[in-house]
């Protein structure tokens, strides 16, 4: 089973916020940075990024302003807000809790040495 490379909306929020934590970016830049950081294993589909950005702006997690150098078509630069930083920390904590729980279940496969098999990639 291969995980989908297309980013689901529920996972998009913390990834967007994490990228914006480093500083303001255009939407396209956010998507490319997520791809870069994930080694091209995660990517936004066309219908996920901008609706998620708009929702985050409505929630006060990010702010946008028009890029003065964008020419005829306005481009927006997005910035993480203080509220967004708090929301990001909650997502990170929830993700760690969830991933630790999944790892605990997977580590118990195959009896008492299951954790060792998991750590060694099944070579025990």
The gyration radius over C-alpha positions equals 18 Å
User: Which sequence of strands runs across the widest sheet?
Assistant: 1-3-2
- Mean pLDDT over all positions: 84
Percent strand equals: 5-15%
Give the end-to-end Cα distance, rounded to a whole number of Å: 22 Å
Give the tally of β-strands: 3
Order of helices and strands: HEHHEEHH
Oligomeric category: single chain
| Global morphology | elongated
- Uncertain residue ranges: none
Total helices: the number is 5
Describe this structure in a few short sentences.
The protein is mainly alpha-helical. Helix content is 52%, strand content 10%. The chain contains 5 helices and 3 strands, in the order H-E-H-H-E-E-H-H.
Structural notes for this entry:
With 124 residues, the chain is mainly alpha-helical. The protein is built from 5 helices and 3 strands, in the order αβααββαα. It has helices at 9-20, 27-37, 49-58, 82-107, 114-119; strands at 25-26, 62-66, 76-80. The chain has a 3-stranded antiparallel beta sheet. The chain is elongated.
Give the topology.
Layout: H1 9-20, E1 25-26, H2 27-37, H3 49-58, E2 62-66, E3 76-80, H4 82-107, H5 114-119
Antiparallel strand pairs: 1-3, 2-3
Helix pairs in contact: 1-2, 1-3, 1-4
């Amino acid at each position: 089973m291969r995980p989908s490379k297309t980013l689901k909306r529920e996972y998009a929020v913390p990834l967007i916020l994490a990228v914006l934590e480093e500083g303001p970016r255009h939407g396209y830049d956010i998507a490319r940075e997520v791809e870069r950081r994930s080694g091209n294993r995660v990517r936004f589909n066309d219908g996920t990024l901008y609706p998620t950005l708009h929702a985050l702006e409505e929630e006060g997690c990010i702010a946008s302003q028009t890029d003065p150098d964008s020419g005829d078509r306005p481009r927006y630069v997005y910035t993480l807000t203080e509220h967004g930083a708090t929301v990001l920390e909650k997502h990170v904590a929830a993700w760690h809790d969830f991933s630790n729980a999944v790892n605990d279940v997977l580590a118990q496969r195959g009896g008492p040495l299951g954790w060792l098999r998991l750590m060694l990639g099944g070579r025990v």
